[in-house]
Every structure is written in C-alpha cells, then in structure tokens.
Design brief:
Strand order of the largest sheet of chain B: 4-6-2-15-12-13-14
CATH class of the largest domain in chain B: Alpha Beta
Largest sheet of chain A: 5 strands, mixed
Chains: A alpha+beta (about 90), B alpha+beta (about 750), C alpha+beta (about 160)
Mean pLDDT of chain B: 97
Strand content of chain B: 25-35%
Structural class of chain B: alpha+beta
CATH superfamily of chain A: Beta-grasp domain
Number of domains of chain A: 1
Largest interface: B-C, 61 and 58 residues
Number of strands of chain B: 29
CATH architecture of chain A: Roll
Number of domains of chain B: 3
Largest sheet of chain B: 7 strands, mixed
CATH topology of the largest domain in chain B: Aldehyde Oxidoreductase, domain 4
Radius of gyration of chain A: 12 Å
CATH superfamily of the largest domain in chain B: Aldehyde oxidase/xanthine dehydrogenase, molybdopterin binding domain
Oligomer: heterotrimer
Low-confidence stretches of chain B: none
CATH class of chain A: Alpha Beta
Helix content of chain B: 25-40%
CATH topology of chain A: Ubiquitin-like (UB roll)
Number of strands of chain A: 7
Low-confidence stretches of chain A: none
Strand content of chain A: 25-35%
C-alpha cells in the first residue's frame, strides 16, 4: 500500500487525517482511492482529468513526469506539492 | 583557475570538468554572433507598441484612423485583431479566464493593468515612422485607482484588477472577487507545540521591492507570416518551444504552422521565457504581408517585462538554548503583477529547505497588483524567502550566542530530511558547503577596516529536469554534430558538448554543437530552472549511448562477429576476446559509408533525479556611518555543483548570481509614484552593480555527486542569487548593529535606522 | 521625412561613405545603414556601454553620437578588432578566461578594455574596474572580465 500524505489544506476533508495508506498502481488509482474514502477530495486535486495546474504529484520525492499515469510503487510515498518552474 | 576559485573534486574525467573554449566564443568576441536585433530580411518593417500611461484604467475607445493614414505605416493592430476578440465565453468555457489573461497581456482589450501595458501596435517602413504613428493613435481612458503594494492589494477595500478573479485555496474557490489569486498552506508536525518547546523565539516582518532581471539585450522579435500561412519567428528567448506554444495559444494556430528560430540571447535570467512581442509582430506581419521586426526600448523592458515580485513576509523561528530548532513558520505574500502567477509557491518550498526541523508551517499568497506581470528571475521566489529566513536565523544565532555556521551545521538538512511540503531529501551537499565555508581562509580571517562586518547566509534551489531532445550524427571523418533545442545563454553548448564527448570517449573539439529551430529538433523545455546542463546533458549522453551501440553493431558487421562479442570503451570498439580487433572512433567512422551509411543517435528525455543545489555565502561589508553607503569588501560563494562540467562557467554562474544578489540587496528597486507609475525605468536610475562597486567574487565549488546523473551533475545557475541579500544584511548588522528588514538596504534606509536608534 | 545627409568617415581603417538622416544615431547608422551589427544596443541612452565604439581615439557610446557627427572622423568598431592573422590578445583572453556568458556586452567591454590598455598598458585591477564602470554586464559579476583584462595588462601584480 502506498503512503499518501494529505495536503494541509485538504485535511478538513479527511477529518484531520494527515496520512493514509492507499491502494493503486498509478496516481489516477491513488486519487480514486482517496475519493472513495473522502468524497470531494478529487475535485480539489484534479481539474479536467489532470492534476491542477499549480500542483504536482511527487512519488518518493520525484515530481511525477506523467501526472495521473505515473506509476506508484507498493511502498511509495505520495505527496501533492506545489508545481514549480524555474528561471 | 586561481586560489580565488577552488574546485573540490573527488572524481576526474577526460572532458567533463575541463575548461575548453566555448564553441560560440569566437563569434561572440568578434561581433559576428547573430542576436535577435541583428536579423535582416528583405522588405523588413519595424514595429512599435503604444503603451498605457496609466497603471490602471478602463479603455473606452481606441481610434487608429490617423495613424493608419500616416505615409509609411503598413499595419496598425489592437486587441480587436487578436482571435480572442472573436471568441465567445461559451466557446471557451473553463478556458475563458486563462485565454483572456494571455491575450490581454499581449494587447489589452477592456482594461489596462499597468503603466506600459500594450494597447496598440504599428508596423511601418522604419521605427521612426512607427513611433510617429503611435502619437496619432487616440485612446480614451477612464483612469481607475491603482494598487501596487502587495499588502494593500490584499485588503477587502482594495481596487480590484479583475472582476472575475477569486481566491483558489487548493481548488476551493472563494465566494467573492479578490486580488488574491491563490492561497496555499503546508504544515509538517505541529508548530504550536514546537514554538511551545522553544527557549527562544524570534518573529519578524520583512519586505522586498520589485527588481528587474536586468539582461542587457532588450526583448525583440521578428515575424514573417508567409502567404502560405506559415509563421516564422526569430526571437530572443530562453525557450523556442515556449514561444511557439504561447503564440499558438494566443493566435489559435496549430504549432505545426509556427517555426521559432531562437537567435543568440543577450541574457535572460528567467525574464525571457514570456513571449511579449512575438504574437504582436506576427499579427502585424499577417496584416502588412511583410516581415516585421520589433525591439523594446530599455524603458519598455523595465515597464512591460519582468520584474521579480515585491514581497511581504512574516518569519518566526524557535530554538532550544543549545541551538536546536524546534519550529519554523513563514507567511509570505508576493505580487504577481497584473496577472496571477507569482513564484510564491517556490518561496514556500525553498524557505526552510536548508533546515532539518520537526515542526514547520508555510503559508503563501499570490496577489495581483498594478505592475507588469512578474516573470521568473533566477531561483524565482527563493531569494525573497531567504532574505527573511536567513536574517531571522542570524538574529536567533545572535540571541543564543552561536556561530552562524555551527548553528546551521547543527540544524542542516541532509539526506533523509523531510521537507515541510513532504518529500524527503536525497543525497545533498549542504553540510559539505557549510564545512567548506567554515574552513575557508575568508571565514578564518576577520573582516578588515572600520565599521565592517561579516554576514553568512545559506540558500537552496530544488533544480528542475523536464524534457530535452538531442541528435548526434557521426560524420565520416569521426567528428560529430550535436543538435539540440536548448538555447545557450551562458556556455551550455560547451557543457553539453563536453558530456557528449566524454560519453563517446572522443575529443571535445570533435563535437560540433548546434542550437536549432523548433522544426529541427524534438520538444525541448526552456533554458532555465538550472536544468540545461543536467537534462539536456542527459539527452546528449543518451544520444551518445545510442551512437555507441550502433558503432558496436557496425564493427560486428565488419568483423563478422556477434554484437555481444564487441564492446565500446575509451572511444573505440574492440572485440572482447580478440585483442587484434580494435577500431578507434575515427577509423570506424571512415567505414560507415560502406557499412550502411551514417550513424545517428537520437534522444528524448524527461528525467527525474535532478538533485537539489545548496549554497553558502560569506559577505564582508563596510558601512560608511556618515553616508550610510555599504561597500562589499570581500565575498566568497560556496556551492555544491554535483560535478562542475565546465568549472569556469559554473564559477561564472556563481559570480553573476551573487552580484545580481548584491544589487538586489543594496541598490535595485522599482520606485513608484503615488499613482503607481514606475519612476526609474533607465539604467541610470535603476542602479545595477558596476565593476567599480565590487570586489572579486571568490568561489568554492563543492562536488557531492548527484546520483541522478552519470557524471553527478546538479544544476548550478539559480541558487547563487539566493543567499546574498541575507548575507549582506547580516554583515550590515555586524558592522552597525542595525537590522535592516526591507530591501534594498539603501544608504537612506541605513541612515534612517541609525537616526532612529540614536533618538533622531 | 527629413532629408538625408552624405557622410564620409573612416571606419575600421576603410574610407566609408553613407547616407543618413540627421536624427539617426551613429549606433543606428552602424547597425541599420552599414549592417555592422557587432555594435549592440542595450539602452539607447548612454547608460550601459554595449554600443561602445572608438571615435577619433576616444571611446564613446555610439547611441549618444549622431551619425552625421562621424563626418571626417575615424570610427573603430568590434568588427575591426581582430586582424586577418587572428584575434586581438584581449579577445583571446576573454575566450580563455570565460569572460563572457551571453556575449551581448562583450563587444563594448572589448573596445573599452583595448582603449584602456592602449593608453595605460600596465593598468591594475583598481584602474580596470574604474575604467570599465561605464559598461554593464549582468551575467558575469565582472570577475572574469576584470581578470581577462589583467592578464593582458603588463601590471606587475596579477
């Protein structure tokens, strides 16, 4: 089971739960799993089928290159972090 | 290399880590290099943009009739000529706001949002005629109250820039219009508890001013919209593909209709990612049926491109008496300029990345104000945050009586440190940078002269990966051509060619790198984010590996051997079990023509594992008590480069970034009058450092290999601008006892602080 | 439209004739009339030095000189700095010392540096920093530029 960290601002939707175990082989499945447990959370993370433009998913510290399709390992850590470009 | 510039290398390579002359060097010292302004085309017209004199106004009407009638004028356009004008809200749906912002940023439709906002453009036989025509365009404005201060713009009664903008709090949309485009928050542990455990807590508010990237080459674009519908653009940009995407978006064109040729670029620093002129020049060209060149003046560069955001911050840190941090907190608001998108999220992510602390919270606000839309500027967001965090940490050290480097070593982020936004750090070189700083002659020698002091500050930038493409083609004489999409701003032709040469085991001089247009190479992300030597380097390595595999296959064919029995090593192919069978790269290349033709390796990469960069800067300053003027007398910048591919250009990045930071610290600032107009849009009044203002910038390159790259490379371009402001502020404190909490730290501010301390 | 003026000048040693409008700067004439684009525009108001050329032996910002002022005078630009035999020692030193990044300010720095060393071959770091203060570079922090000039200078301390 992947370890999913709930962003601080979405913890109101999880009743204060900060971290949950979630089944899923890719980000899409993880988010669907989250939604099943905490209805409404998907709409805060996803827009038009993709991760919101100002967010990114980090799997074990690496920002997911393939967004919703990125593979998630059995024991991966999943974070929803700010999407960041450089100069 | 001198003692002033040390490289602490642990691994040596044949080409990587050497200092060859850059391939574009001769063209650039002889004036032959072709920059955007140098483009010449038959029948070329010249364009000028009419810009708003008001920081905030409604456009009632625009009359271009007289301008169009002026002899020599070939085309006049306004926002009505952009596709957005003909698109309905229904057609665009959820994309409406985004496209309106993008289109209005090119040419304002209903409102102008900053002084310098484009409202119309003219193409004419020369720039003088175009300029005369601008004066004939009549715009009826209804001036509106403007707001340029980030905190003022956040108030409920602030003038609103966009009637439809509402605050997004991670997808939750606010119930009323606001200048706050976004609010984000991350927390790790429990800060309340952490501050409760602290023996000492320091909490301060700080501000920073808008500053400009200050590249010496103004923005330019030349467009030719051919009668077959193909649009050609020649422009100064950090990313030809970014320009293509932006122009395709605003002009609603398929990307296949647009070819962008990136010319040599005269500096960018993040400010040449936005395509300001290209869609305008293209539309004028379409209307005039001729090529159109457009150059910004320096005033236009200041008033309508860049800048980096002004910011407001509240920083709170708590520690035990032994110096161990217990909690850290940052609230930061950054001005995005006229449209949403400040680097506040970067500020939040970078702010405490130097520290391993149990409890932390960061809150960030992205706020629109009546300034030009902010653009990226070298480690966007991180320098402002570091000014706040690193000066407050210095105050904490002072209160605890701790050496600033010992304090940072005690609390340093290292492999395994969990950041506030969640992910865990890989192998990073912050501790090694701190140790190099502690052991440096600079730190062991007291600052010289009266009224002098030394400041220490650290900095972080995450670095980026993103997509890059390369093609390596082997010539029959054994030289190779290396084709890439990464624009070369500061020597990346050299650093990419070095990595290709190293991988192939051939001489650097045998690799001919070329930067090409968007039709000639696969998608390549911008030169920015400290990504190019890392990601495009990886693309070159992968293309080189493909070449090697094909060379092995050719040798196997020549020797009638199985491919598995042939290997590539040290720039040659050889038979694993027959030492007689060996062909050097050039010898094999000569046989390519008769064994199937040329060999080409192609790659598209989108790498993870970029490897974060850390820096520690030492700044000695001397403050004149009579004038308040601060002089930087000695400066040393220490940075983990993973592996410096071309140490001279790594040093150059460090020195250039440090000096931009020195300017940001001491001089540079957008001055606004009461109505929100920039008062100093010239290099005389916007005072960037000159050679006379500076000492040599000494460097130490620390090399803690990045496991995400075969040679250990980490990006280097951005982090050097992060520590200087705090390092200098901390130095000014040691010199004067004054804590400056507002950038820039001008002589006037220092005198005022002095007078206040001395009771007026 | 203002009338054009016939100007005769010596540019990089060659007798040159051109027509220009009285309002055109020498920078415009070099770049747009004569096609000599090695001289760069950075600010067009005399504050950055990117358009530095040598006029009768003195360095000037060519954006602040009118084209017609070149009448009967001698102009030297970056295009005349290297000889057929090779680069000027300063050009070579800039290359070897990585004294350029984006390169847009480089022609101006080279002409200004040559003017200094022609007059004061033994200029030291302080003198070089003072002399080059009229040329802005945003990429390098000046360190490697100053070192490149020091290397060519005959100053005793290097």
């Amino acid at each position: 089971m992947a370890k999913v960290y709930i962003p601080t601002m979405l913890q109101t939707l999880t009743g204060g739960v900060k971290q949950i175990e979630c089944q899923g082989r890719n980000v899409r499945q993880i988010i669907d799993g989250l939604e099943a447990q905490y209805p409404g959370i998907k709409a805060r993370l996803v827009e038009d089928g993709e991760i919101r433009s100002n967010l990114a998913v980090a799997i074990d510290g690496d920002v997911a290159r393939m967004g919703m399709l990125e593979r998630v390992g059995e024991t991966s850590e999943v974070h929803f972090v700010p999407a960041i470009g450089g100069g | 290399m001198t003692l002033s510039n040390q490289v602490l290398s642990e691994v040596e390579y044949n080409v990587v880590g050497k200092r060859p002359v850059r391939p574009d060097g001769v063209d650039k010292v002889t004036g032959r290099a072709q920059y955007g302004a140098d483009v010449k085309l038959t029948g070329l017209l010249h364009a000028k943009v009419l810009r708003s004199p008001h920081p905030h106004a409604r456009i009632r009407s625009i009359d271009t009739g007289k301008a169009e009638a002026l002899p020599g004028v070939k085309a006049v356009i306004t926002a009505k000529d952009l596709p957005f004008a003909a698109l309905s809200r229904e057609e665009l749906g959820g994309d409406y706001n985004r496209l309106k912002f993008a289109s209005d940023h090119m040419l304002a439709s209903d409102k102008v949002l900053y002084k310098g906002h484009p409202v119309a453009a003219v193409a004419a036989v020369n720039a003088h005629v175009a300029e005369s025509a601008l004066a004939l365009i009549e715009v009826d404005y209804e001036p509106l109250e403007a707001v340029v201060d980030v905190r003022a713009a956040m108030r409920d009664d602030a003038p609103l820039l966009h009637a439809e903008l509402r605050t997004s709090s991670m997808g939750e949309i606010g119930d009323k219009p606001s200048n706050v485009a976004a609010h984000l928050s991350y927390e790790k542990g429990d800060v309340e508890q952490g501050f409760g455990e602290a023996d000492v807590v320091v909490e301060r508010e700080l501000t920073t001013a808008s500053v400009h990237q200050g590249y010496i080459e103004p923005h330019n674009s030349t467009a030719f919209w051919n009668t077959d519908g193909q649009l050609n653009l020649w422009t100064s940009t950090q990313g030809a593909f970014a320009v293509r995407a932006a122009v395709a978006d605003v002009l609603r064109l398929p990307v296949s209709r647009i070819k962008v040729t990136p010319m040599e670029i005269g500096g960018g620093f993040g400010g040449k990612i936005t395509a300001y002129l290209d869609a305008i020049a293209a539309t004028l060209s379409q209307k005039a049926g001729a090529p159109v060149k457009q150059l910004m003046t320096r005033a236009e560069v200041f008033e309508a491109s860049g800048p980096a955001p002004g910011s407001w911050m509240k920083v709170k840190v708590g520690a035990k008496n032994d110096g161990r941090l217990t909690a850290v907190q940052l609230e930061v608001a950054m001005d995005a300029g006229a449209y949403p998108g400040s680097p506040v999220m970067q500020a939040m992510t970078c702010a405490f990345a130097c520290y391993d602390v149990e409890n932390g919270k960061v809150d960030g606000y992205d706020v629109v104000v009546n300034k030009p839309k902010t653009a990226a500027y070298r480690a966007p967001g991180s320098p402002q945050a570091a000014f706040g965090v690193e000066t407050v940490m210095d105050e904490l050290c002072q209160q605890l009586g701790l050496d600033p480097i010992d304090f940072r070593l005690l609390n340093a982020a290292k492999e395994g440190t969990r950041r506030i936004e969640g992910p865990v750090a890989r192998r990073i070189g912050f501790v090694e940078c701190l140790e190099a700083a502690r052991d440096h002659d600079h730190y062991r020698t007291p600052p010289e002269g009266e009224n002098s002091g030394r400041g220490v500050a650290a900095g972080y930038w995450m670095n980026r990966g993103f997509q890059s493409s390369c093609v390596i083609t082997v010539n029959f004489d054994g030289t190779v051509s290396l084709i890439m999409g990464s624009v070369d701003i500061g020597g990346t032709r050299a650093s990419i060619a070095q990595q290709a040469a190293e991988t192939l085991g051939i001489a650097y001089e045998d690799v001919k790198p070329m930067v090409v247009d968007t039709d000639s190479i696969g998608f390549t992300f911008i030169t920015g984010g400290s990504r190019t030597s890392f990601a495009t380097g990886l693309a070159a390595i992968e293309a080189a590996e493909s070449v090697k595999a094909q060379m092995v296959s050719r040798a196997a064919k020549i020797w009638d051997a199985a491919e598995d029995d042939v290997e590539y090593a040290d720039g040659a192919v050889r038979h694993k079990s027959d030492p007689e069978l060996r062909l050097g790269f050039k010898d094999l290349a000569r046989q390519l023509a008769t064994t199937g033709g040329t060999v080409a390796g192609q790659s598209n990469v989108d790498p993870a594992g970029e490897g974060n960069s850390y820096a520690v800067h030492l700044a000695d300053v001397q403050v004149d008590p009579d004038t308040g003027k601060t002089e930087v007398t000695r400066y040393t910048a220490i940075q983990d480069a993973g592996k410096a591919v071309h140490p001279s250009y790594v040093e150059g990045q460090i020195q250039g970034g440090a000096v931009q930071g020195i300017g940001w610290a001491l001089n540079e600032e957008y001055y606004f009058d009461n109505s929100g107009r920039m008062m100093n849009p010239t290099f005389l009044d916007y005072r960037m450092p000159t050679s006379l203002d500076l000492p040599m910038i000494d460097t130490v390159i620390v090399e803690v290999a990045n496991s995400g790259h075969p040679y250990g490379v980490r990006g280097v371009g951005e982090v050097p601008i992060v520590p200087p402001m705090a390092a200098i502020a901390n130095g000014i404190h040691e010199a004067t006892g004054l804590r400056l909490r507002s950038l820039p730290m001008t002589p006037g501010k220092i005198l005022e602080e002095q007078w206040e301390r001395n009771g007026g | 439209m203002p009338g054009v003026v016939h100007v005769q000048a010596k540019i990089n040693g060659e007798d040159t004739n051109f027509l220009c409008e009285p309002r055109q700067s020498l920078l415009e004439v070099l770049r747009d009339v004569l096609g000599m684009t090695g001289t760069k525009e950075g600010c067009n108001d005399g504050n950055c030095g990117a358009c530095t050329v040598v006029l009768d032996g003195r360095i000037v910002d060519s954006c602040l000189v009118l084209g017609v002022e070149a009448q009967g005078r001698e102009v030297q630009t970056i295009e005349g700095m290297a000889s057929p035999g090779g680069l000027h020692p300063l050009q070579q030193s800039f290359l070897e010392n990585a004294a350029l990044q984006c390169g847009i300010c480089t022609p101006g720095f080279l002409l200004a540096s040559r003017a200094l060393l022609d007059a004061e071959p033994d200029a030291d770091e302080g003198r070089i920093r003072h002399w080059l203060a009229g040329n802005l570079c945003r990429c390098t922090g000046y360190d490697k530029i100053v070192r490149a000039v020091i290397q060519v200078s005959t100053a005793p301390e290097k």
